Each structure stands twice: as structure tokens, then as C-alpha cells.
Amino acid sequence: METIAYSDFAKLEIRTGKVVEVKRHENADKLYIVQIEVGETKLQTVTSLVPYYTEEELMGREVVVLCNLAKAKMRGETSECMLLCAETDDESESVLLTPERSMPSGIRIV
Fold it and tell me: Which segments constitute the TRNA-binding domain (predicted)?
């Protein structure tokens, strides 16, 4: 496993968020387009969680979000952040990381 300096880790803006909108991507079987409230900001992510969660299971969920990931286009949609998950090597399971207790959206993960 490669190690990094704390200063590299400190560059990551990881915060709590709340899923406020979920819809299936029109041109991709495994993708959702998700709006996440992170404090006063709303960020959009394109995520491949369709095999693991229904729209109803995602809606309103408290999540952990990498907020300062460079924007990317995925199937024509802009992804501004990343939902953090624990995923098996064979991708048979993917589980969203969530705060142990309810926290306001936007709280920094340290």
C-alpha cells in the first residue's frame, strides 16, 4: 500500500451531505444523477449505484461526499463530487459510507 503525507490527505474536502434528488440517467443502465446538499451548496454526482440501491433508498439519505474532486462529464452529465462507498473487489456489493449519528450536512470529515 502506498502511503501519503498528511498534507496530501488534508487537501481532500470530505463532508457530510444529504441526498435531495435522485433520477435515473436516461442513457445509462447503471447510473443515477444525484443532487446532494452539502451545507449551503448543492452538488451533482453521477454514480453507478443502480445495482445496489433504489431511488427511494437513496432519497433523503445522509452520505459522505468528496467535494473537491475535479468535475468530469459522465455520459453527458456533469459530476462535481463523489459519494464514498465501501465496495468489494468483484463489485458484487457497494455500500454507502454514512455518519454513525445524524449530522448536519456540510460537516467536515477529519
Answer: 8-110
